[in-house]
Write a structure and sequence with these properties.
167 residues; globular
């Protein structure tokens, strides 16, 4: 089991114990709320994990390495950001897909650009923004977010490479 998960579980357990000691009904209501969220999310998590497993089998490592690998350089990071723009899935689908891309030899920077772009620049959200912010504001926000996704991918690639030398 992952040590980080163990520490988070222990901190959560301690939090519940402290909450129960102060106000038992609050701790019990928090537990009920957590169970309700789990019941609502579980079908999405299961389907997304199975989808990510299927996609990982379909990803051709040669294709991923060519388009998203380290050899692709800046173009791979830009392509990762472009893929993130068209992503409309839940985080339960996107993160396992991102891990599958890493496993298939995508560069870490391209994966960071993909996940950042998915969060910031989803094309599917643009029509919802137009009525509130107007077209010019929405497009400038979108373009800025896309640049941030690519810059973040480049920065991460550089930092990850530097970090790798110390491990």
């Amino acid at each position: 089991m992952d040590r980080t998960l163990v520490w988070i579980a222990m901190a959560t357990g301690l939090g519940y114990a402290l909450a129960y000691a102060q106000e038992p009904t609050d701790a019990l209501e928090a537990a009920r709320s957590s169970i309700s969220m789990l019941a609502q999310s579980l079908p999405w998590i299961l389907v997304s994990m199975f989808l990510a497993g299927l996609v990982s089998q379909w990803l051709e490592p040669e294709w991923v390495a060519r388009w998203l690998g380290r050899e692709a350089g800046l173009a791979g990071i830009v392509f990762g950001a472009a893929l993130g723009m068209v992503g409309t899935g839940s985080r339960f689908a996107v993160y396992p897909l991102a891990v599958s891309l890493l496993a298939a030899d995508a560069s870490p920077g391209a994966v960071v650009a993909f996940t950042t772009s998915w969060q910031l620049t989803s094309l599917a959200r643009l029509p919802a923004e137009f009525p509130f912010f107007g077209v010019p504001f929405t497009f400038v926000r979108f373009a800025t977010s896309l640049v941030i996704s690519v810059a973040g991918g480049l920065l991460f690639e550089w930092l990850w490479s530097a970090w790798s030398h110390f491990r």
